[in-house]
Structures are given as C-alpha cells and as structure tokens.
C-alpha cells in the first residue's frame, strides 16, 4: 500500500519550520577568534547576537550522497570597522562544494583558497553563489537589516573551523568611507 505524507519541513520565505530543525545562535562571546579588532570586541557585550542558523539534517552526518540544508540570519552590526560575520570554515573533506542563495539583505561571501588567496562576492536577494571545494568561506552582513541566505551542502563534507580559528582569513571585510572593502590582514 502506498501512502502520501506531508513534508517533514516547510521552507516559506525566509523561515524553516518543522520538528526536525536544529537551531543555533552565535554571539560575540562565541566569536572572539573571528574579529581582528580585539579592543573594539572587548568593549561590546559578549551576549550580543551575531547570527542564527536553522538547519535540516535529513540523513546522518557523514552520509555519502546525502544533502543538508540550512538558513543563516546575520544581524547588522560591526566590531570596530569589521562587519558582523559567520565563523567561516573549510570542509573537512576539502573537495566538497556548497551553494549559497541570498534571500534577503546585503552582504558579502568571503572566499579563501588553500593558497590563502581571498576574494569576495556581493550578496543580494536572488544572488546564487557556488563555493568550490578546497575553499574556505564565511559571510558578512554589509547592510542595515538582517542578511538571510540558504545553503545546500553534502552531508559528508564536515566542517573544519579549527584551521580558520588558528590562522584566520588572509583578508578581512571592513567599512571604509561607507563602503565594504576587502583588506589584507
């Protein structure tokens, strides 16, 4: 006997809902190794929200040929002149790629290859970004409202946050004369 079921998850607008959604919030206190201006960071509240993530993991972590889906919500703000951003990571399985799709707001996708060459792509509603394997990535909110984007990645990719925590990105995104600029670190 066949059956017809409702989906386990609903993705409507910028919202991901369902009983199987994992949620996490990152604050300035969680991101002390991310921002370059340590004095500006120390002057801010450690419990200040920087970003929220909602994810759907329909298969076990590490499953070959599976996919994960998530939505990230980055709040507007800066630490000194550096925009609020995600932690950033390589994939543990370095050859795995990923897609980001901007849903709302303005931002930059910051990409760094394994030779530490850094570049950035503008994000705006409707922009679609392919992140190739062997590329670290993080996202910054350069606007005055929430930056919201969805992501699709292989369930066996894993996350290597440690490499970025130890060495950082070779470039940082800062505001200069009212504009985002990718500056050498």
UniProtKB/TrEMBL annotation:
Coiled-coil region: none
GO CC term (a single one): cytoplasm
GO molecular function: glucose-6-phosphate isomerase activity
Keywords: Gluconeogenesis, Glycolysis, Isomerase
UniProt entry tagged with the keyword Isomerase: yes
Reaction catalyzed: alpha-D-glucose 6-phosphate = beta-D-fructose 6-phosphate
Highest taxon of the lineage: Bacteria
One GO-annotated biological process of the protein: gluconeogenesis
UniProt cross-references to CDD domains, sorted A to Z: cupin_PGI
InterPro entries with a match to the protein in the record: G6P_isomerase_prok, RmlC-like_jellyroll, RmlC_Cupin_sf
Listed pathway(s): Carbohydrate degradation; glycolysis; D-glyceraldehyde 3-phosphate and glycerone phosphate from D-glucose: step 2/4
SUPFAM superfamilies for this protein: RmlC-like cupins (SSF51182)
All copies of domain Glucose-6-phosphate isomerase prokaryote, residue ranges: 26-177
Signal peptide: none
EC nos: 5.3.1.9
Enzyme kind, highest EC tier: isomerase
Family: Belongs to the archaeal-type GPI family.
Name of the protein: glucose-6-phosphate isomerase
Gene: pgi
């Amino acid at each position: 006997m066949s059956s017809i079921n409702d989906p386990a998850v609903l993705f409507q607008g910028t919202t991901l809902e369902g009983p199987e959604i994992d949620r996490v919030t990152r604050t300035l206190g969680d991101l002390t190794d991310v921002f370059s201006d340590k004095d500006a960071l120390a002057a801010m509240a450690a419990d200040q929200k920087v970003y929220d993530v909602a994810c759907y993991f329909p298969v076990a972590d590490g499953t070959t040929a599976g996919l994960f889906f998530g939505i990230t919500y980055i709040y507007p703000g800066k630490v000194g002149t550096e925009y609020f951003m995600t932690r950033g990571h390589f994939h543990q399985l370095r050859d795995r790629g990923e897609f980001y799709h901007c849903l709302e707001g303005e931002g930059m996708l910051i990409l760094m290859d394994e030779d530490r060459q850094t570049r950035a792509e503008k994000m705006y509603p409707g922009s679609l970004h392919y992140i190739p394997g062997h590329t670290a990535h993080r996202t910054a909110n350069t606007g005055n409202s929430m930056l919201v984007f969805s992501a699709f990645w292989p369930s066996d990719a894993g996350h290597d946050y440690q490499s970025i925590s130890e060495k950082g990105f070779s470039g940082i995104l800062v505001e200069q004369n009212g504009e985002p600029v990718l500056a050498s670190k």
